[in-house]
């Protein structure tokens, strides 16, 4: 609105606020203090003199991070937010975590491409950037099992990997090509109890963190930020270490697989 504020009086004002005759100029200064109080009584607002110079707007909450790839596994291996649709080898669908959806169902069958969901070679390359990998699973196996990884060969390499031990501990490992920046963190036991569990592994700078069911269970910090990039496919359900270091293909269900370009917290 252009012009002067309404509460400022001028010589050409014809009436006062109540509609009466214009007060003489010599009385303006004396009545200035009571004029604001009159406005308060008339319109039910705090005195204008008491208002802050600039009203503060309600801050907009920061938006939660969104995944750059998301495979719900609800009857399909489609990447619902990216362009990396998965391919199933020996894997079907079973009941999902909330009872109304579906999830990938793994049989634990041995043999290359007998028990895996295979993604492309690019989505799991995080370079030096922060990232998160999230998924849900359930199993009752008491063996060391492959969960999800991007790992060229069963030795030191630029890699990230999730496995579960025979006692139900969850392992999250990252490493570089020489093994000089190896970081492996592990949760407590008992997650092979046949119930659904959510796993989130994050990397922020040189620090990795592991959350299970919304609880921080382990952290680890390496000497430097690990550069993560290789040319192999990202795989769920099988590992390059199957049959080499005691790891076996996964038996159970897995769903809601996601990757993020940031370190998220539950």
Gap from first CA to last CA: 47 Å
CATH topology of the largest domain, what is it called? Answer: Jelly Rolls
Number of helices: 1
- Note poorly predicted spans: 1-57
CATH architectural group of the largest domain: Sandwich
- For the secondary structure, the number of strands is 16
Query: Which outline best applies?
Result: globular
State the CATH class of the largest domain: Mainly Beta
Helix-strand pattern, N to C? HEEEEEEEEEEEEEEEE
Percentage beta strand: 25-35%
What is the C-alpha radius of gyration, as a whole number of Å? 31 Å
Mean pLDDT: 83
Secondary-structure content class? mainly beta
Largest beta-sheet characterization? 8 strands, antiparallel
What is the number of domains? 2
The percent range for helix content is under 10%
What report would you give on this structure?
The chain is mostly beta strands and 266 residues long. The chain folds into 2 domains: 13-54, no CATH class; 69-260, Jelly Rolls (Sandwich), CATH 2.60.120.200. It is built from 1 helix and 16 strands. Strands 1, 3, 4, 6, 11, 12, 13 and 16 form an 8-stranded antiparallel beta sheet that branches. The two termini are 47 Å apart.
